[in-house]
Amino acid sequence: MDDNLINTATSIVAAAAAPAAPANPHELMTLLVLQLAVIIIAAKLGGLLFRRFLRLPSVLGELVAGMLIGPYALGAVIPVPGIGPLFALTNPHYPVSSELQAISQIAAIILLFLSGLDTNLTVFLRYSVVGSLVGLGGVIFSFVLGDLCAVFFGVAHSFRDPQALFLGTISTATSVGITARVLAEKRKMSSPEGVTILAGAVIDDVLGIIVLAVVIGMTTLTRSGEQVHWGSISMVAVKAVGFWVICMTVGLLLARRLTGTLKHLRSPETIAGVSLGLALLLSGFSEMAGLAMIIGAYIMGLSLSRTDIVSLLQSHLQGLYDMLVPIFFCVMGMLVDVRATQQVLVFGLVYSLLAIIAKVVGCALPAYATQFNAHGALRIGLGMVPRGEVALIVAGIGLSSHTIGQDVFGVSILMTMITTFLAPPLLERSFARGGTGLKREVSAAEQEGTRSFQLEFPSADLAAFVLERLAQAFRDEDFYVFRLGQETQTYQIRKEAMVFSLSQEGQTILLTASEVNEHVARFIVLEELLELQDMARAFERLRDMDDMKNSLLKGLFDGGN
Questions:
Q1: What is the pLDDT of residues 290-322, one digit of tens each?
Q2: Which residues are within 8 A (CB) of 181 and not within 5 positions of it... i.e. 6 or more apart?
Q3: pTM of the full predicted structure?
Q4: Rounded CA separation 495/477 (Å)
Q5: What whole-number distance in Å separates Cα of residue 396 and Cα of residue 465?
Q6: CB burial class (10 A; 0-12, 13-18, 19+) of residue 262?
Q7: Which domains does the chain have, with CATH numbers?
């Protein structure tokens, strides 16, 4: 039989077997609305399950929910009358529709914009040397071991292969929010180890974004057929770092002037909307420069992180974050083909193990070489182990650009989940052993000591209300207040040389401050508590309270007539 005839027949059979795409825009929109409905419900329920019952980050629940409803699982069999499967596998290279891909890309931009807003550029100044070394060591060890692992298992042909580069980059990211939760529960946020972990995470994020920019540039060169050698690598690195430095410099220099202009708008909603628009604009410019969109979003957030509108932006964009970002993580889970991952399961487990070793060794060695003993260095290394949202975003970029396949993408998801599962209990156990993490006791003359005081309340809800009031009270006094992760009840507060930590644990609020600046923190807290006390007394003296209650009760029974 003629080969052309065989190929034609094969194509016809494959086309007949493939799921039919919606035939018109109306069906496309209907399908997209139904898909979003299922994704949002599944992501929220999955996140709630993991957070409330398993005491794990909700991002893991959102990932698992996506894996369950995706085109490789239930999504392929859930029917939509007149259209076909809910999540049909129409594109073997990228298994979700371009519409869902676009929505998840916007969600990633919002995620990195808010991550930039949450990043404190001055947090590592107190432990700047050791924190920078910790972050740098973690990035170098993680990238090298991830790259070597890909070559050793035959996933990549050389160390400069795009797949090897992406696996190295995915391994560099650290999710400090997960570690912050453990530090808050152990009341170690202001300990030398806690501050060093936060400082290392800042430099880790910045270096990780720059590494991603360099890797994307090298991948672009490879695709265009150009030979990648050290000269071209240097040019790519200069371009990436140059874009970063120029945008960051301009952003930091113009941030206060920009916010001054935005304040003339007088509408918080408009200020937040315009700021998000600027983040999207810089994201587009970043993509046009050959870098990832998320790099531009992170730079814009970082530029605005030291302005006085940062809390306004966070509060007004939080709702958008809560709605769109779970969609992103759920879509990331939908991309996982478990069958493809099974083929490289051994590779995935070894890659995950090396990712843990890389952070522990790469971050612990610089800490041990400076001022920490073995216990303290181990705590710092374990605190840098969890991977999170940035690792998933980098993996998604690699998959959408066809640089990595389904198997490697699944390995990235597996590594993220394993490091997130293992790090918290290991870190808790390291602190449970007790003892100082420093090589020698630091005298008061060498380092300011810290003191903690706590406030007890009748209920956790009342404590949460007071916590938010106290955070705002510090903001009103021109302190820089930022929340350590979206799912923690811990704030770090800074103003010049003053550093405070404010957290909630059930019915208790804990505030940690240096001995020198403790009186400042106590005064602000006392002032706010007196205002709350006056508010409570005024509420008790409200004369027409009974009339209000009677009016509401009357309305309940007679329908408001």
A1: 777 888 888 888 888 777 787 788 888 888 988
A2: 424, 485, 487, 488, 490
A3: 0.70
A4: 9
A5: 38
A6: buried
A7: 22-85 (no CATH), 98-432 (1.20.1530.20), 455-545 (3.30.310.10)
